[in-house]
Amino acid sequence: MREFKDLKIAVAGTGYVGLSIATLLSQHHHVTAVDIIPEKVELINNKKSPIQDEYIEKYLAEKELDLTATLDAKEAYSDADFVVIAAPTNVYPRVYLKTQKRPKKC
Ligand SMILES: NC(=O)c1ccc[n+]([C@@H]2O[C@H](COP(=O)([O-])OP(=O)(O)OC[C@H]3O[C@@H](n4cnc5c(N)ncnc54)[C@H](O)[C@@H]3O)[C@@H](O)[C@H]2O)c1
């Protein structure tokens, strides 16, 4: 693994969770934020936040961050020391939990 200061971190998802983590970590590490929405990637690469958050907006505009956004998940994940998953969990719309009660045996 690389030295602490040279760590490469990929973050999947640039929503409230992912972009907060990516913004904070990119103060000290090389961070690649991955999303599937091109407009979000473009905004982040232009130092603008796609979500309304006072601190993310401020940090992107004012701090020197080592943060790049991309649609290229393969490249981002293959070279990362750590990958943070901050994408939605409902990615399998056809899988449901069985919540029906089992009939009681007396
Ligand atoms: N927001 C919270 O307070 C909170 C608290 C606990 C857990 N979580 C969990 O954290 C995760 C993220 O939550 P959030 O609020 O940031 O969600 P969000 O909807 O704000 O952001 C999710 C982002 O992931 C992107 N995305 C979707 N599929 C992707 C993929 N395959 N690869 C990369 N990016 C992808 C979306 O385009 C979106 O930008 C979810 O699993 C959520 O359940 C959120």
Layout: helices, strands, pairs:
Layout: E1 8-12, H1 16-25, E2 30-34, H2 38-45, H3 54-62, E3 67-70, H4 73-78, E4 82-85
Parallel strand pairs: 1-2, 1-4, 2-3
The structure holds nicotinamide-adenine-dinucleotide.
What does this structure look like?
With 106 residues, the protein is α/β, with parallel strands linked by helices. The chain has one domain (4-85): NAD(P)-binding Rossmann-like Domain (Rossmann fold, 3-Layer(aba) Sandwich). Helices cover 31% and strands 17% of the residues. The protein contains four helices and four strands. The chain has a four-stranded parallel beta sheet. The longest helix has 10 residues, at 16-25. The model has no long low-confidence stretch (mean pLDDT 91). Bound molecules: nicotinamide-adenine-dinucleotide.
CATH superfamily: NAD(P)-binding Rossmann-like Domain
Q: What's the tally of helices?
A: 4
CATH architecture: 3-Layer(aba) Sandwich
Bound molecules: nicotinamide-adenine-dinucleotide
The CATH topology, please? Answer: Rossmann fold
What is the N-to-C succession of helices and strands?
Answer: EHEHHEHE
Overall pLDDT confidence? 91
Coarse morphology: elongated
* Uncertain runs: none
How many structural domains does the protein architecture include? 1
Q: Main sheet: which strands, in order across?
A: 3-2-1-4
Q: Approximately how much beta-strand content do the residues carry?
A: 15-25%
| Alpha-beta classification | alpha/beta
**Biggest beta sheet attributes:** 4 strands, parallel
